[in-house]
Structures are given as C-alpha cells and as structure tokens.
C-alpha cells in the first residue's frame, strides 16, 4: 500500500484525507479484496502523523464496510468492497458512482451499435473544452430547436452525406429519433386518424405511434421495401418508411417506388416520414440519397446519432417542411424545453472538425468484419440458410428453411445465453415470416458472434 503525503496546510483534516486516499485505492482496484493493509502504527510512522489520526480513519473505513479486522491476523480490504469483486458481479464503480450491470447475453438485437468503439478520448476532450471555454450562457436554458452551430453543421453534413435539402431553420434537435417520432405523431395525428406503416416494422417505432392512440394501417414490405401499390385509399396522417435499409427486412426502396410514394403523398395531401437511422453504413455500393432530397415539402426526415455514435447521447433531429416548423417548435418546448446544449456543442465540433467522418470510416470496417464473420459462420453451420437484405446497417435477416422460430425455441436459446428476434415479432400481419430471424451484429464482438452461431446450431439442429 503506497500512501501519498498528506497536506498539512489545507482545510481538509488529516483523518479525512487519509480516509479518502484509502477508500479511493479500494474503489479503483489498487487495493484488492482480501489484501492486508498496513497496521495503524506503520501508517502513522510512514506519514509522520499521530496514530490516533490513523485509528480514526480506519474506524470510519471499518464502519462503512471497506475494511475488516481478522483477529490475530490484521486489517484487510473487506470482501465485496473492491472494484474487482464488483466487476465480477457485472457492475463497476468509479469514485463512488455505480455503473449498472451489463447483460451477459449474446444479444442479437438489431441496431445495437459497437459501443466498445465509442470515441471516448475525443468526446471527453470536446466536452471538457466546451465546459471550460464556452461562455456561461450555454449553461442556461437554450433554444428548443437546438444549438444553432449544430444545426448549421448538420445542414452541410446532411446535404453531403444524405442528399437532404434544407436550411438550419428546418432542423430541430430532439432527444433521439424516438422523441422526433413521438412529436410528429402528436402534431399530425388527430382523433380517429391512422398512420400507414410498412410491415414488418420495428416494434419500438410502431409502439410510439400506438402509444399516442394512433391506429396503424399495415402496408406490406418486400425485399425492396414498402409496396406503394398497397397503400390505403383513405388519407393517412402520414406514411412511415425506412427507405435506405428497411427494418427488419433490409431492403432499399427503388427509385420507382420512391416516386410512387411521393405521388401518393401529394395526391393525399399527406406527409411521408422518412426514418434514416443507419444509412451511413453501407458495405456494397454507396448509400442511396434520402427521399427528402426529392421533395422537401412532402417529407419529414428523421435522423439520429444513436447508431453512428452512441444511443446514450440521446441526440437525434428532424428536418421539417416549412409549415411544420412553428407547431413542432412549440411541442418540443412543452415536451422538454430542449436537448442538452453541452452535448450539442460537443457534437457540433465533432462533426465540424471531421471526427464524425473519420469515425464512420472506422466503424464501417468494424461492422463489415462483424457482418462477414456472422454470415460465414451461419453459412458453415446451416448450409441452407438464406441471408436477406442489403449489405448495410448493423443487422441481417436470416431465413432458415423448414425451421419455425417458436416462443419455446427462443426461450431455450435465451437459457443458453443467446437472444434472437423472430421477424414474426415485427410483423403486423402474421404468418409470412416464421422461418426468419433478425440477427444484429453491431454490438457483438467477433468471438461472441462465432459462439452465438454455435449455440444457435446446437439448439436449432436439436
Ligand atoms: C427504426 C429505428 N429508427 C431509429 C432508432 C433510434 O432511436 P433513438 O434515436 O431514439 O435512439 C431506432 C432504435 O432502435 C430504430 O429502431
């Protein structure tokens, strides 16, 4: 145990300083569970302080459970007090803050990004710069639309990367795509209205609509996305699509269907809501530009930084046709005033200084590798498996001819430590996808992917 000299001039008592030093050594894993610590006499001697001070500090550590006395042996770091023991149980503590337990499943949830590659250092530096150097005003209430510099940076980024045409007044920064979709629903759906939604569709987004009491009209999607020929004859409040990489089937909407969708929206005097959540990641060919760029008056474009950076940031955005700006602005205001300004300033710099482009290039390689490992392992384990959808995003759909992914099979896999997501779960009209599952690979390491497929093989073949 190495102890630093105590500050004899400061206002903090020597007892308090010694207590904090030893407590921090335990929490930070520098003193391990079961490790014997120096006697009070040894510490008093090495720090040149009175033994009473050490006894007082030790008493406090004993009473708070950091230390324990084993008679005739000495004083030891108590069981369960060290970071190492906490980590084993799945939670981590840092300076007294406890981080929540991580699930131990190999979770094939679609759309989970590789959070282990979050650019921690750069983000820490940018947020630190913002906190230390920005004017005090940024710590007050901000504009409900979001930080102006982020919206301006986004105009250029979205034009370049996604062909989105807008000016900054049309952008509102939201707490993820989730809030954007919730507010759009509140704004556009009146009593007894309905929303046309591609089927199958992500349950999370669908639940946002139904939670707001909107009815859903399912429009079947195939390998090329939503089928405009099946759109309802009655006017929907809006049509919800994920045209770049449909979730879950993974299709990219053809230009013919995009044009048909726009014609439909114009004829019905209704909007298209375009969710563009993972389009930066394409692995064959380039990414197809947004529908918004084809008709900015007809399309509400929704984006997020949850997949490209981290869902923990809770930063998304909506690009609105001009007549919707004012009413949306009010809804955002009454919802939560605005999204965290500090994070927005850091993000604006992250994009402006080119770190986002660099991060996307890096992540593309990682996801490409993970995707290849998964598809190769699947094909080796199941020679008849069929991988559906465009090579993009962070998930595939795998079809296993002759297999039905029942609740029992999913539960059995869960007991083996693997979570899978049957496509039927996302289907509004049931019965067409019983042999297909979504396999998200973004947040799973190469080793886990291989292990996950082995577990699938063992259980599915049985
Ligand atoms: C289709 C779709 N769009 C967007 C998102 C991102 O939502 P948020 O930005 O609120 O994290 C998700 C989340 O899983 C999703 O499934």
From TrEMBL:
Its cofactor is pyridoxal 5'-phosphate. GO terms for molecular function: DNA binding; DNA-binding transcription factor activity; pyridoxal phosphate binding; transaminase activity. Residues 12-80 form the HTH gntR-type domain. Keywords: Aminotransferase, DNA-binding, Pyridoxal phosphate, Transcription, Transcription regulation, Transferase. This is PLP-dependent aminotransferase family protein. Signal peptide: none annotated. The keyword Transcription regulation applies. SUPFAM superfamilies: PLP-dependent transferases, Winged helix' DNA-binding domain. It comes from Bacillus mesophilum. It holds the Pfam family GntR. In the C-terminal section; belongs to the class-I pyridoxal-phosphate-dependent aminotransferase family.
């Amino acid at each position: 145990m190495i102890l630093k000299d105590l500050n004899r001039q400061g206002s903090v008592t020597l007892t308090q300083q010694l207590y904090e030093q030893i407590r921090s050594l335990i929490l930070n894993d520098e003193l391990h569970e079961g490790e014997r610590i120096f006697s009070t006499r040894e510490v008093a001697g090495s720090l040149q302080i009175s033994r009473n001070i050490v006894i007082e500090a030790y008493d406090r550590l004993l009473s708070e459970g950091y230390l324990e006395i084993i008679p005739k042996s000495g004083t030891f770091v108590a069981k369960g007090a060290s970071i190492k023991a906490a980590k084993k149980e799945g939670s981590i503590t840092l300076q007294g803050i406890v981080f929540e337990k991580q699930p131990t499943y190999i979770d094939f949830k679609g759309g989970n990004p590789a959070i282990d590659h979050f650019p921690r250092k750069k983000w820490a530096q940018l947020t630190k710069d913002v906190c230390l150097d920005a004017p005090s005003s940024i710590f007050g209430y901000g504009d409900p639309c979001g930080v102006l510099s982020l919206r301006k940076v986004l105009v250029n980024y979205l034009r370049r990367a996604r062909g989105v045409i807008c000016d900054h007044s049309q952008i509102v920064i939201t707490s993820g795509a989730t809030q954007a979709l919730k507010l759009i629903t509140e704004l556009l759906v009146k009593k007894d209205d309905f929303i046309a939604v591609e089927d199958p569709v992500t349950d999370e987004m669908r639940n946002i609509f139904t939670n707001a009491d909107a009815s859903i009209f399912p429009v079947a999607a195939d390998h090329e996305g939503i089928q405009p020929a099946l759109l309802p004859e009655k006017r929907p409040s809006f049509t919800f699509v994920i045209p770049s990489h449909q979730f879950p089937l993974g299709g990219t909407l053809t230009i013919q269907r995009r044009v048909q969708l726009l014609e439909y929206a114009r004829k019905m005097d209704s909007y298209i809501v375009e969710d563009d959540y993972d389009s930066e990641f394409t692995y064959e060919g380039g990414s197809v530009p947004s529908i918004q760029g084809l008709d900015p008056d007809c399309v509400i474009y929704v984006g997020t930084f949850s997949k490209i950076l981290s869902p923990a940031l809770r930063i998304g955005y909506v690009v609105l046709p001009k007549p919707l700006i004012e009413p949306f602005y009010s809804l955002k205001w009454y919802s939560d005033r605005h999204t965290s300004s500090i994070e927005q300033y850091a993000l604006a710099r992250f994009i402006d200084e080119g770190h986002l482009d660099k991060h996307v290039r890096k992540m593309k390689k990682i996801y490409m590798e993970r995707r290849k490992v998964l598809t190769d392992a699947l094909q080796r384990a199941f020679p008849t498996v069929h991988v559906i959808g465009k090579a993009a995003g962070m998930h595939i759909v795998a079809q296993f001819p002759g297999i039905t992914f029942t609740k029992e099979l999913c539960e059995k896999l869960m007991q083996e430590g693997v979570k899978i997501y049957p496509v039927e779960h996302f289907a509004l009209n049931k019965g067409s996808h019983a042999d297909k599952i979504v396999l998200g690979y973004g947040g799973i390491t190469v080793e886990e992917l291989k292990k996950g497929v082995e577990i699938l093989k063992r259980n599915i073949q049985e």
